[in-house]
TrEMBL record:
PROSITE patterns: ATP_GRASP (PS50975). This is ATP-grasp domain-containing protein. Residues 111-164 form the ATP-grasp domain. Signal peptide: none annotated. The lineage of its organism: Bacteria, Bacillati, Bacillota, Bacilli, Bacillales. InterPro entries: ATP-dep_AA_Ligase, ATP-grasp. Keywords: ATP-binding, Ligase, Nucleotide-binding.
Length: 198
């Protein structure tokens, strides 16, 4: 079976997935943003492009699919889900469901999924506005503030004391990352929601 992988990710935490797929006789084609492709020999084909260059991606994916059909589209991180779904829709393949994608992307939903399977997680609290920071007065410090739906440690900040909180709370509140796929804008975070954990 042939799988299209959208973005390769970090080899330290992604290589085992690629190895497992190859062990199970999947053949992989990779669409990747960077020239630094790790283990290039493991992929049947590598398409290097800007991930925002939808016309180029569409043209190449259709050509590849006509040559030999893909059975599915796979991605490793939440930022790639909109593009992976757009490609899957174009090729009439199954999409990553919104429910599944959200449980990876939104850290509060991820915690609920973890808890339902008995996975131990740090304590956390979702705050919806700056004024809710007062609920953290009795928490044990240091804390880590992070947007509930972002990646790559964007907007993540350590707070050493309650007195330091008002100075640092805007980092996760204002953090955002914009993805543009074929003129559709995807914002990865809602600026008024973030997570606090310790």
């Amino acid at each position: 079976m042939r799988i299209l992988l959208v973005e390769q990710g970090d080899p330290k935490i992604r290589r085992y997935v690629v190895d497992k797929l190859i062990c199970n006789n999947y053949r992989l084609t990779l669409i990747n943003e960077l020239n630094a492709v790790w283990d290039k020999q493991k992929f049947d084909k590598v398409i290097l492009t800007r991930l925002s260059n939808w016309p180029y991606i569409m043209e190449n994916v259709i050509k590849e699919h006509e040559t030999e059909k893909f059975e599915g589209v796979l991605c490793f991180n939440e930022g790639s889900i909109p593009l992976a779904n757009k490609i899957a829709k174009l090729l009439n393949l199954p999409l990553i469901s919104k429910y599944s994608g959200d449980s990876f992307r939104f850290k509060d939903r991820m915690r609920v999924a973890f808890e339902s399977y008995g996975v131990i997680s740090p304590d956390y609290k979702i705050l919806n506005s700056r004024k809710e920071m007062y609920a953290l007065k009795d928490w044990e410090y240091p804390l880590v503030l992070k947007p509930s739906a972002l990646m790559g440690s964007l907007g993540v900040v350590k707070v050493n004391s309650y007195e330091e909180l008002p100075k640092k709370i805007n980092y996760p509140l204002c953090a955002d990352f914009e993805l543009n796929f074929d003129g559709e804008i995807y914002l990865l975070v809602k600026c008024t929601v973030f997570q606090v954990q310790y």
